[in-house]
Amino acid sequence: MSPSVLMWEHHAWDSPIRVGGRAFAERFLQAGWSVAWINGPLAPWNLFGGNDEVARRRECWRRGGREIAQGPGRLFLYAPLAMVPYRRYPGLNRPWAHRHSLDGTLPSLWRILRERGFGRVDLLWLATGSPMLPLLRRLPHEKSLYRLSDDTSEFPDTPGSYRALQEEVLSRLDVVVATAASLAERASRLGSRVLLLPNGVDGSRFMGVARRDEGAGHPHRLGRIVYVGALDSWFDWRKVQALSRAFPEAEILLAGPIRMDTSWAKDLPKVRLIGPVSPQEVPQMLAGSDVGIIPFVDSPLTRSIHPVKLYEYFAAGLPVVASDLDEIRRIGSPALLAKSEAEWVEAVKAAWARHRREEALAFAARHDWSNRFTALLDFLRESPPQAIGAGIGSGT
User: Fold this and answer.
1) Strand partners, 37
2) What mean pLDDT is predicted for residues 336-356?
3) Residue 201's closest CA among 49, 66, 307, 74?
4) Phi and psi of 278, rounded to 5°?
5) Contact by Cβ (8 Å): 271, 281
6) Which tens digits make up the pLDDT trace of 227-258?
C-alpha cells in the first residue's frame, strides 16, 4: 500500500502561484504517494464574491473535492467550509476560534477525508496559516511536519493570537522544516527537531527555452528588467522607480498579484504591471529579460523570506540584483546585493555588464527541488517516531 500525506497549503492546486509546498507535493506523487492537497478553510462569506484564489477554493468545495491522476501517485483536492473560521476579525481572532475552526465544517471534513482514503495518514504536513492544532488533535497520523516558510505573525492580516498558537504547535510537532536560518533557530528554541531546507527550483522547466540574444551576441543595451512575484507590503517600489529613471530605455516588467497602491508607477511609462502569470509563461518571460530583481523592503517579515524567484532567475540564466537582507546574503548566491537606490542602480549596471550565465545555471542546478526532496526524505527516516519506516519514499 502506498504511503499517504495530507498537505494543508495556502494556494489552490491550480493557482498561478507555485511555491515550495507544491514542489514537494509533485515529488511525493512521482514517488507513488497518495496526496491530499487541502486549502482554506473557507468562511461563510466566501460563498459569494472574493478574489480568484477564493473562487478556486469555493469551486472545489462545491464539487465535493477532485481526484486527479498524477503519474504513479493519487491526488485529492479539497477546501472545507468552516462555520467559525479563524480570522483577524473581532471574536474570530481568539485562540478558541483556531482550536475549533474545523469542528463545524459543512459537510464534515473528517467524513470527506475518510471517504477519500485519508482518514489516517502517514505524514501530516502543515504550512503557515493552516489550522494546525485541530489537525494535530483530530487527524490520526504517524508523523507530523510543519514547513515554516514565513514569519506569518508579521503579515498584516494575521490575528494577534497567532504567534502564541504557532509556538504551541512548534513544541508538539515531530519535525519542522524551515526555509530560513532565523526560522530554524526559532523552532529549535522550542524543542522541535528542525531541518533547515531552503527553497529551490525545478530546473527542467527552464531547459530548452531559447533566450532572445542566443545566436545574435549579447544585446548592446539593457532591454528588460523583470520581477516575478506579489506586489505587496514587502515590495520596495522606490527601488523600481529609481531604476526606471536611471535606465529610461529599459522596460521594467512586474509580473504577479497586485495588492498595493500602484499610483507611483503612473508616470513611469516603461514600467509594466501585468498581474499574475501562469507558471508555464514564466520561463519564456525570463528568457526574454536581461536582469532579474528582488526589491524587498527591510522588515522583520522580509528578513525571514527565502525567495523562490532568486533560484528561478538563475535557472533562466539571468543575472540577479536583490535587496541586501540577512537571509538573501546567507544564501551565498551570485546575486549582487544592494540597499540604497543609488546602490541598486550601480548593481544593475554591474550585473548586466559582467553577467556570467554558466555560473547562474550551475548555482540553480545545485538547488533543484529534487535534491531538496531527497534531503527531506532522508531527514524523515532519521526522525523519531519511526512508524512510517521504509514506506517513506519507497512508493510501496
Assistant:
1) 7, 77
2) 94
3) 307
4) -70, 155
5) no
6) 999 999 999 999 999 999 999 999 999 999 99
Task: Categorize the per-residue pLDDT at 386 as very low, low, confident or very high, splitting at 50, 70 and 90.
Answer: very low
Distance in angstroms (rounded) separating the CA atoms of residues 121 and 118: 6
- Under 8 Å between Cβ of 37 and 113: no
Cell of 287: 528568457
Per-residue H/E/C for the chain: CCCEEEEECCCCCCCCCCCHHHHHHHHHHHCCCEEEEECCCECHHHHCCCCHHHHHHHHHHHCCCEEEEECCEEEEEECCEECCCCCCCCCCCCHHHHHCCCCCECCCHHHHHHHCCCCCEEEEEEECCCCHHHHHHHCCEEEEEEEECCCHHHCCCCCCCHHHHHHHHHCCCCEEEECCHHHHHHHHHCCCEEEECCCCECHHHHCCCCCCCCCCCCCCCCCEEEEECCECCCECHHHHHHHHHHCCCCEEEEECCECCCCHHHCCCCCEEEEECCCCCCHHHHHHCCCEEEECECCCCCHHHCCCHHHHHHHHCCCCEEEECCHHHHHHCCCCEEECCHHHHHHHHHHHHHCCCHHHHHHHHHHCEHHHHHHHHHHHHHHCCCCCCHHHCCCCC
- Please state whether the peptide bond connecting residue 385 to the residue before it is cis, i.e. omega within 30 degrees of 0: yes
Give me 237's grid cell.
517600489
Q: Which residues contact 354 (CB under 8 A, 6 or more apart)?
A: none
> What pLDDT, on the 0 to 100 scale, is given for residue 42?
95
Write 323-326 long-range contacts (CB < 8 A, 24+): 323/236, 323/239, 323/294, 323/295, 323/296, 323/297, 323/298, 325/296, 325/298, 326/181, 326/182
Which pairing describes strands 141-148 and 175-178: parallel, antiparallel, or unpaired? parallel
**Sheet of 320-323, strand order:** 271-275, 251-255, 224-228, 291-294, 320-323, 336-338
Q: Are 378 and 390 in contact (CB under 8 A)?
A: no
Confidence of residue 212 (pLDDT cuts 50, 70, 90): low
The answer to whether 337 touches 347, Cβ cutoff 8 Å, is yes
**CA distance linking residue 73 with residue 155, whole number of Å:** 34
Q: 9 is written with which cell numbers?
A: 497549503
What separation in angstroms does the CA of 63 have from each of 54, 109, 120? 14, 14, 23
Cell of 297: 523592503
